[in-house]
Amino acid sequence: MQSNSGRKKLGRSYVYAVYISVFTALILLAFLSRIHIPFDRISVSHAIGILVFFDYFAIEFLVVLLVCSWMIRGPGILRIAAYLLTFVYMAVYAVQWTALTRGSDYITALALENVNHIELVLNAPIIVGAFVFLLTCAFMPYLIERRGPGVFSLKGHVILSAGVCFAMLASGTTAYWIPSSSLEARKRIVLANNMRHTSPAAALWKLFRPNRGSASDFTLVQQEALREARRFGLRVNFDRPFPMLRETIYSSPEPFPQREDGARQPNVIVFFSEGISARTINRYGSSYEGLTPNIDDFAKDAMVVENYFNHTAATYRGLLGQLCSIYPKFAGQGGWHTDYRYVPKVEYYCLPRYFGRNGYETVFFDAHVPEAAYVDELMTQIKFERVLTSRELKGYIRDEAPLMRDAMSDHQFMDSFVGFLKDREAQSGGRPFFYGLYNLGTHAWKKLPSDGIIYGDGKNYSLNTIHNWDDAFGRFWSYYRSSPYSKNTIVVFTADHCHYFEPQFVEAMRKEDPDYQTLFVDRIPLIIKDPTRDLPETYDARSATSIDFAPTLIHYLGAPNARNSFLGNSIFEPEREKSIPTGLSAIGEQTYVVEKNEVYFLGREPKHDRRIRLMGSLMNWLYSLEVNDRLWSDDLSR
Questions:
Q1: Are residues 520 and 628 in the same domain?
Q2: Which of these, 154, 255, 267, 563, could form a disulfide with 572 (CB 3.0-4.6 Å)?
Q3: Residue 415 sits in the same domain as residue 310
């Protein structure tokens, strides 16, 4: 076709091909900028490995290019469909790149479960970028349609299609013609980034089409899974109405007997710190000088438990899982947070129920504004006598309004807790107590509130929030040391889960450890301060996970044995010393094996893949027990 000036127009297919090719090239460069390359020097084989890391990206691009370039040759309805398909392709890549930028991974099931915190990952550049992206997509059909049919002949299109098909074949068979050294380099990149070797669109498709079998499929591997589960200390009886029922919590004497002058029933305070990894605490080896001086001081005269990992995430699962020693099915989004009214009202056997029946007052302190979360409802359901949120706690700090949109600041929270303890101190007598606390200020992507304390130059907000929580905890620690509680109250400092691998956290951790893996399973702190016992400075948990927290605490106290439905075991049981150090973590559909303090996920080491799949099937079956209220019944109590 001739233009008015006599020059030939480029056809729609040409313009479309250039348009989508330029977009794909730019987005691939953007992805490459966010990928951690674990090589000190880039050799030729390393460079090829980096290129073939994107082989599935290339296949998706070529499929869209081939299909849509033919559709654009057709009538209006086909061209509209091509533009819509291209928009979806571009949108998926843009969204996945944003997820990678903000969370070091594609969109995961865990991210969807915590979508209520989406405001933490949105910022002005992302919003502006989304606006520009929409404008670009809107401009695409106008730009292409202006060109008209053009001179792109059918023969030329066939030749282009043949070239695209050849390129797709080459991209899909890299394992057969790429040098093994380059394939090994690709594997190192995949492992270093804890990313699946897949493409953005395929990752999103798999997210909504999980490939794990149903609970009914578990019968096919039941006996093999049972044998494997026993290696992790998990004992269930498939034939019982309540398969997790156990007659005892522990089987050996208390590991650290009380001194004669110790309180018969000491009080217990447990700090479930939001998202704290052991690697961020100086006492556990962090090289960021002065990051956690108060926690370090607290740990000086306490027992520091090492090589102890979180068994699940995020907060709802972490709190419920530790207090009840289970692998919970329900998380925030689609569970406790958004669909609380529809979550099955399950009977759980948990620490507050146990302590309550042994004469303890049980209270949970939640920093949240009650309307912002359902942590308070969760804690009420597992039988805490009282749950105090910011609504009640602000009364201890002159009714100050919470300084964060959804919670009290960490300093407000600690000041209010100290105020509560002072009021209780003034009361004579009373029952021993079991108190649990959860703060929010160290949540991933959180910025400091107005009363926050920065770390160093203040440029890393992850380090800022950790240092700020340490400073707030210091207010409790200073009060505790001079209070009557210092003689009769055990303080346990731990976390609901490890810190999420937000970009600034990853940046900070890789300065200490270049091989830091972006996993949501990591060592977490477990520090026990006990004025009634003589404790060693450290204790090696040998890859145990927080599934063991509840039975460990009861065993540690030497408290009465009881029927229970705990899946975990005390880390102080002597048989742990004789077994291979192992632990098991599960976050929804993702299962992890911890062995000799290394975390393995599906695909990292082939020798672990079978057991990970077996334990994934077991998890799915355990989730079904929770959904069908087969964990516990009050009738089972003795």
A1: yes
A2: 255
A3: yes
Evaluate whether residue 491 is within a structural domain: yes
Query: How far apart are alpha carbons 57 and 51 in whole angstroms?
Result: 10
Short-list 252, 306, 350, CA closest to 558: 252
Last residue of a domain, one of 173, 208, 243: 208
Query: Distance (Å, rounded) from C-alpha 630 to C-alpha 622?
Result: 9
Contact 10, 16 (CB under 8 A): no
**pTM higher than 0.90 for the full model?**
no
In this structure, the answer to whether residues 190 and 257 fall within a common structural domain is no
Instruction: Tell me which H or E stretch contains 556.
Output: helix 549-557
What CATH number did the domain enclosing 342 receive? 3.40.720.10
H helix or E strand, kind and range, residue 305: strand 303-309
One-character DSSP codes across 67-122: HHHHHTTS-HHHHHHHHHHHHHHHHHHHHHHHHHHHHSSS--HHHHHTGGGGGGT-
How many domains is the chain built from? 2
Percent of the chain residues topping a pLDDT of 70: 88
Tokens of 208: 């909504």
Average of per-residue pLDDT across 37-48: 88
Q: Strands 489-495 and 526-529: what pairing? A: antiparallel
DSSP secondary structure letter of residue 454: -
Is 271 in the same domain as 176?
Answer: no
